[in-house]
């Protein structure tokens, strides 16, 4: 590298990293360590800002909901029609449980497709978490956390 190239290189370096006469190698190392520490601190701060903070969540325990379900009782070949979600919701609301959402679903199991066997159809309800124990006592089951809503 010629002297002109070296001067050009030095002139494009940040002042803290400039190498040359008048710069102590210890100062250069200290400046680089300081810059590295600043990058680490900045990264940590950005990480904290971008992470969801559970303590700042607007979901208080009273606002939490849970999904419960119960087989509708239907049998293959139409031997027994199942209870629709609206009728089953009356069972919950009659026990003082607020039903936020209701829908028909399938239990996801491979069952026997034979006349007289259960169809696997279920009624699914979203209720306040505080009413979960009551719903379980009534024969409803909690939807596992890993099942899609």
List its traits.
149 residues; alpha+beta; Alpha-Beta Plaits; 2 domains; four-stranded antiparallel β-sheet; 4 helices; 4 strands; elongated
How does this model look, in words?
- By secondary structure, the protein is an alpha+beta fold.
- It has 2 domains: 3-51; 61-142, Alpha-Beta Plaits (2-Layer Sandwich).
- It is 34% helix and 15% strand.
- The chain has 4 helices and 4 strands; from the N terminus they run H-H-E-H-E-E-H-E.
- It has a 4-stranded antiparallel sheet with strand order 2-3-1-4.
- The radius of gyration is 33 Å and the shape is elongated.
- The protein starts with a helix and ends in a 7-residue tail after the last strand.
Largest sheet features? 4 strands, antiparallel
Distance between the termini: 66 Å
Q: What level of helicity do the residues show?
A: 25-40%
Strand content: 15-25%
- Which H/E pattern describes the elements? HHEHEEHE
Query: CATH architecture of the largest domain, please?
Result: 2-Layer Sandwich
Alpha-beta classification: alpha+beta
Number of strands: 4
Oligomer: single chain
Shape: elongated
CATH class of the largest domain: Alpha Beta
Q: What is the CATH fold-level name of the largest domain?
A: Alpha-Beta Plaits
Determine Rg (CA atoms, Å): 33 Å
Overall mean pLDDT: 79
Q: How large is the count of helical segments?
A: 4
In total, the number of domains comes to: 2
| Uncertain stretches | none
């Amino acid at each position: 590298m010629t002297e002109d190239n070296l001067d050009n290189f030095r002139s494009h370096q940040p002042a803290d990293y400039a190498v040359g006469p008048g710069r102590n190698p210890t100062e250069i190392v200290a400046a680089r360590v300081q810059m590295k520490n600043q990058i680490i601190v900045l990264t940590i701060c950005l990480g904290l800002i971008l992470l969801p903070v559970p303590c700042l969540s607007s979901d208080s325990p009273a606002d939490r909901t849970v999904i419960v379900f119960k087989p509708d009782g239907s049998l293959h070949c139409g031997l027994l029609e199942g209870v629709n979600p609206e009728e089953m919701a009356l069972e919950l609301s009659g026990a003082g449980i607020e039903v936020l959402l209701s829908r028909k679903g399938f239990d996801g199991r491979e069952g026997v497709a034979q006349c007289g066997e259960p169809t696997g159809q279920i009624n699914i309800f979203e209720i306040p978490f505080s009413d979960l124990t009551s719903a379980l006592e009534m024969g409803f089951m909690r939807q596992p956390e890993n099942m899609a809503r």
